Amino acid sequence: MGNMKPEFVVWDWNGTLLDDVAASVECINTLLRRRGLTPLSVEAYRDAFDFPVIRYYERVGFDFDREPFDEVAREYIAEYDRRSPDCILHPGVWDTLCCLGEKGVHQIVLTASHQQSIEDSLDRRGMRCIFQEVVGLQDIYAEGKVKKGLDWMQQQRAQGLHPDNVLYIGDTTHDLEVARAMGCRCLLYSGGHHSRERLARTGNSLLDDFRRLLTFT
User: Fold this and answer.
1) Would you state the pLDDT for residue 131?
2) Are 51 and 174 in contact (CB under 8 A)?
3) How far apart are CA 75 and CA 53, in angstroms?
4) What's the pLDDT tens digit per position in 66-116?
5) pTM attached to this predicted model
6) What is the CA radius of gyration of the chain?
7) Residue 5: which of 209, 179, 204, 165 has the closest Cα?
8) Which residues pair with 185 in a beta bridge?
9) Spatial distance between the Cα atoms of 31 and 92, rounded to a whole number of angstroms
């Protein structure tokens, strides 16, 4: 990975900074049970979860020939919004964010979730001031964030920031896809929405403990 201090750290939120895997499993299982479908274990969830999320929904049994994806997505968000305020940060996250800030590292959140919902989540936790920017989607369909990442990187390059000076940290193989599109370094956190085994198959560097991140910066 190397020890070059980044100018920017681009963070994913759900599953990376926020420990919301258990809440997400509860949400999807609520929807599955309402339809008489088999609920998922945490392990099965981490193997199935994907972007765009419509692919993941189909993988676990939803039939969008019988009901619109839009309705399922709204039902899921309603369940998630009830549970997410109780979700906490992963161990070591707060200290790591503060330490990076003290070192002069700029930090942003890049999310495939609805941007305002993430802004609200950060505000509730007193964290919004840590991040220079929150970049997210304007809908609830979680199709992915490659374009958002590319647009942000293009804007930063125009201001003189080189991708080599950006470190992207996420918890899914999609995050690696985004980082590669942006041309920046990437660490994949193993405690989020994809299992460590699934992430390891990418061959990318993994992060098991946020305190280890400080050795890279």
Assistant:
1) 97
2) yes
3) 14
4) 999 999 999 999 999 999 999 999 999 999 999 999 999 999 999 988 899
5) 0.93
6) 17
7) 165
8) 167
9) 32
Name the 3-class secondary structure at 175.
helix
Please tell me the distance from the alpha carbon of residue 204 to that of residue 98, in angstroms, as a whole number. 26
Tell me the pLDDT of the chain averaged across its residues. 93
The pLDDT of residue 30 is above 90 = yes
d(CA 126, CA 60): 35
What does the block give as tokens for 39?
């609920």
State the pLDDT at residue 180: 97
CA dihedral 50, 54, 58, 59 (to 10 degrees): 0
For 64, 119, 165, the CA distances from 105, given in Å and listed in that order, are 44, 20, 10
Report the distance separating Cα 69 and Cα 75, nearest Å. 10
Measured distance between the N- and C-terminal CA atoms of the chain, rounded to whole angstroms: 11
Question: What pLDDT, on a 0 to 100 scale, did the predictor assign at position 141?
Answer: 46
Rounded Cα distance between 127 and 144, Å, is 24
3-state SS, residue 128: helix
What does each C-alpha distance from 182 to 112, 151, 175 come to in angstroms? 15, 9, 11
Q: How is 7-74 classified by DSSP, letter by letter?
A: SEEEEP-BTTTEE-HHHHHHHHHHHHHHTTPPP--HHHHHHH--SSHHHHHHHTT--TTTS-HHHHHH
CATH superfamily of 8-20+87-213: HAD superfamily/HAD-like (3.40.50.1000)
Residue type, 34: R
